[in-house]
Amino acid sequence: MKSLFRPTTAPDPAILDNHRPLIRSLQRRGFLRGGLSLGALTMLTGCDPADNASVQAALRSVSSLNDRVQALLFDPNKLAPTYSEAEVLKPPRFNAYYDVDKVKPVDGGAWRLELAGLVADKRPWTRADIAAMPQVETIVRHVCVEGWDYIGQWSGVPMRAFLERVGADLRAKYVAFKTADDYPSSIDMATALHPQTLLATKYAREDLADPFGYPLRLRASTKLGFKQPKWITAIEVTNTYPGGYWEDQGFNWFSGI
Question: Which parts of the chain fold into alpha helices (H)?
């Protein structure tokens, strides 16, 4: 995942490969345990190393600081590198906490996208409503917290255009997502408004297959894979920190790349 300092130019893939173990560890709570000794935590926070609750609180504090630094360094106008169609992996790589045979297909005909929070028009959206909006395509690298990546070709509605259409408060802090598989997540508003952040409906110009998020998933080029919720069923715009499944397990919330 991401270090505290964002590069001024796109990273060379070979360099990225060499640093994947570090990138991965930066986003796991284990990095904080390995990178900061208990003695260092004691000096920084005054916590008792024998007190597990105080150590966990210190770890959360450092992780929160990391999130804030990443957010401050994030450039909402900087585009991620794009690639050619010849480099696209078909089909994309499946990844979830469970095996692919545990995926429960979503009924596209009955599916509705619910809206909540700081949104003027909270009417639910159907697949036809989404399809009627202007679509864009992007070919970008998908980077997983586990250390692997692939080039993916995604099509869908720009998140900014969708939020503007429903009258969302673009000054709000967070955009949160609920999903059909109960693995919610959330992103910062700056990322939601990024030009390459999509509500994706297609991969390689075909409707998303069931294992990859049908009928709607997030595709944010500036976030790690676990920040890209699949099978989205609801979107909320809010100023209250919403967390997420993996974020609540200790993964850094901002998790940019």
Answer: 13-18, 20-26, 29-35, 38-45, 52-73, 127-132, 159-165, 189-192
Show the tokens assigned to 199. 């509500």
Contact 91, 203 (CB under 8 A): yes
Contacts (Cβ under 8 Å, ≥6 apart) of 217: 199, 200, 208, 228, 229, 230, 231, 232
Short-list 200, 225, 23, 211, CA closest to 142? 225
Phi/psi at 114 (nearest 5 deg)? -85, 150
Domain locations in the chain as residue ranges: 13-73, 85-249
85-249: in CATH 3.90.420.10:
yes
pLDDT digits (tens, 9 = 90+) for 100-134: 999 999 999 999 999 999 999 999 999 999 999 99
pTM greater than 0.90 (yes/no)? no
Give the model's pLDDT for residue 236: 98
Mapping DSSP to helix (H, G, I), strand (E, B) and coil, where does residue 237 land?
strand
Cβ-contact 234, 172 below 8 angstroms: no
Residues facing 149 on adjacent strands: 143
Any idea which residue has 């909540």 for tokens? 116
Q: DSSP characters for 115-181?
A: EEESBS----B-HHHHHHS--EEEEEEEE-TTS-EEEEEEEEEEHHHHHHHTTB-TTSSEEEEEETT
Q: What is the largest CA-CA distance in the chain?
A: 58
Cβ–Cβ < 8 Å for 219, 154: yes
CA–CA distances in Å: residue 40 to residues 48, 223, 240? 11, 30, 32
